[in-house]
From TrEMBL:
Coiled-coil boundaries: none
Keywords per UniProt: Flavoprotein, FMN, Prenyltransferase, Transferase
Organism taxonomic ancestry: Bacteria, Pseudomonadati, Spirochaetota, Spirochaetia, Leptospirales
Positions contributing to FMN binding: 9-11, 35, 100-103, 135
Gene3D superfamilies membership: Flavin prenyltransferase-like (3.40.50.1950)
Transmembrane segments: none
The name this protein goes by in its record: Flavin prenyltransferase UbiX
Amino acid sequence: MKLVVGLAGASGSIYAARFLKALSHLPGETYLIVSPPSLRIFSEEYETKVSKPEEILEFIRSKFGLGTEHQFHIRNFHDIGADIASGSNTWDAMVVVPCSMKTVASITAGLTENLIERAADVSLKERRRLIVVPRETPYNRIHLRNLLSLDEAGGIILPASPGFYQMPKTLDDLGDFIAGRIFNLLGIDASLFPKWEG
Ligand SMILES: Cc1cc2nc3c(=O)[nH]c(=O)nc-3n(C[C@H](O)[C@H](O)[C@H](O)COP(=O)(O)O)c2cc1C
C-alpha cells in the first residue's frame, strides 16, 4: 500500500503516533507531511521537543518502537512542487490525522497553499480515498458546513471520537481505536482493538 499521511495542527498527536507506529509494521510506503503547528502541538502533548518530521518518527521509535517493514519518505510542508503535488504520481489513499479546522476549511475551499492541502486536493480530483480525522469541540456552523462539503467532495470524515465500549485502559488504547478505524477504511485489519462481539 502506498499512502500520503499528513499531520495538521489539531490536538490529538496520539492518533498520529499510534497510526504511524502500527503502519511501520506493515509492508508499503508512506509520504509523510507535517505542518509547523502540528510539530508544536506534538511537542506540547508528548512533553518533548520535535522541530522536524524526522524527529516525530524518532520519538515514536523511542516510545513505542517502529517496524522496519514500511518505508517513510518525508516531504516538506511548504514544497508545493514536490512529487506528490502532482496527480501523475499515484497513491492508494491519503490520511490527514489529526486534522485542524483550518486544514478542513482550506481543503474544502480548494486553496492548496501547502503540500497537505495540495495532496488532499489531488486525492479528491483523482478520486483517491481521502480520510480526514478532524478534531475540535464544539463545532461552529462553519466547521459543520466545511465537514459536509468535504464529505460531498468525496472525502471521508472520521471524527477523533474514540468509543468507550471496548473498555480502554490507557490513552494508547484510545489512540489505537482511532488508528484501527483508519486501517478499517484502508481495508486493512490491523487488529488494534478487539472486535465487538455482540
Ligand atoms: C496547543 C494547540 C492546540 C490546538 N488544537 C486545535 C484543535 O484541536 N483543532 C483545531 O482545529 N485547531 C487547533 N489548533 C489551532 C491550529 O493549530 C491552527 O488553526 C493552525 O493554523 C492550523 O494549521 P495547520 O492545519 O496548517 O497545521 C491548536 C493550536 C494549538 C497551539
